[in-house]
Amino acid sequence: MRVLNEYFLHQPVNLLLRHIIWVDPLVGMSKEQLSQQLSENKLDNEPLSLFLNPIDPELLQGVILMDRQVGIFDYSLKNLMQEKNGVTLTRSLRTNDDTKSAELLQQALQLMQKKATLKFAEARQFSNYLRGLFQGRLDQTPITSIRKQLIECLKTVDPEDQKVQLTVLESFYGAFTAKGPRYFSYPLPEGINKWIILKGHAEQDISALLADLKEWADQHHLECQVDFCPLHTEEIDRLQFPSLQVGFIDGNTYHPFEPVYPKDDVINLDDYLSFKDTFYYFAPEIRELEARYKQKMRQGTLHLQEAANDLWAYNHLFEPICLKQILTQI
């Protein structure tokens, strides 16, 4: 199975596909099942983009067959797609007696998701307190120089010469799943051979640098893939410029990222703290806030584990998904 990209879809997108097939519900198709069915239909070498289920990333919410420009999506994602047309296939329950069970499992699933969301919101609060300890403590003179240095990396391509067309322009650099936070560090996206990794505790300053790069790219019509933080959803975690073969990434403690290619570069903003004793001065507060953050994240993950159990049970009430049957619709 040849996977080019993996995404968590949280916001409306326009995928410009030739055909869309909505499966109600698609939940339950795993990567392993997809790989097996692709092999059975002689589609092993078809390049794919996968949309993972944020509860259990081993399950799929959608798949795009890139060469055919065909998208197969769970019906629940229809409100996130600008393309509303397409064929809808409804999976049958194994027996009529399963109707009530399906309704109850859906309710339980939604309840566990809601509880998990509340715990992650509490974790974000503690994260914000921790980030506040470092806000405004960077020497801005070298930061201005770093900003110019990063923008220089984007000036080596004429937008008219761009050969790469991205499938999804905006996604999330991971999600909170039943198996803990899942980030898309590996496998690495194809077409990127240099990563500029930004590290340091002043995370809002890192996000601001990435936002400045995105703004510059927009002004100069340079297409890029933007991946937002799953916790601080308004902040950018990763930018990819396939036409330049370069990417910029927040490589902090929550989702550490280390050099993998010879050209990779690391910039640690902690080197530019104007108050060098920040870590010593706030050591008790840092330890307490980190402990509270981890506690709330664990609680949220436990709720998602219950949700994942409900999701698997819900899927088993339906007849199996047949890729060959789905593809006959186009």
Largest sheet: 6 strands, mixed
Number of helices: 7
Give me the count of strands. Answer: 14
Specify the helix fraction band: 25-40%
Which value, in Å, is the CA radius of gyration?
22 Å
What is the mean predicted local confidence, pLDDT?
86
Instruction: Please report which band the strand proportion falls in: under 5%, 5-15%, 15-25%, 25-35%, 35-45% or over 45%.
Output: 15-25%
Tell me the structural class.
Answer: alpha/beta
List the helices and strands and how they pair.
Layout (H helix, E strand, L loop, with lengths): L1 E6 L11 E6 L6 H10 L6 E6 L7 E6 L4 E5 L12 E4 L8 H34 L7 H13 L17 E3 L2 E3 L2 E3 L11 E6 L3 H17 L5 E4 L7 E6 L4 E5 L14 E4 L9 H4 L1 H33 L7 H5 L3
Parallel strand pairs: 1-3, 2-5, 2-6, 7-11, 10-13, 10-14
Antiparallel strand pairs: 3-4, 4-5, 8-9, 11-12, 12-13
Helix pairs in contact: 2-6
Characterization of the model:
This protein is of the alpha/beta class. The chain has 2 domains: 2-93 and 319-327, no CATH class; 134-278, no CATH class. The chain contains 7 helices and 14 strands. It has helices spanning 31-40, 99-132, 140-152, 203-219, 278-281, 283-315, 323-327; strands at 2-7, 19-24, 47-52, 60-65, 70-74, 87-90, 170-172, 175-177, 180-182, 194-199, 225-228, 236-241, 246-250, 265-268. It has a 6-stranded mixed beta sheet, with no helix packed on it. Strand 11 (225-228) and strand 12 (236-241) form a beta hairpin. Helix 2 runs antiparallel to helix 6. The chain is globular, with a radius of gyration of 22 Å. The mean pLDDT is 86.
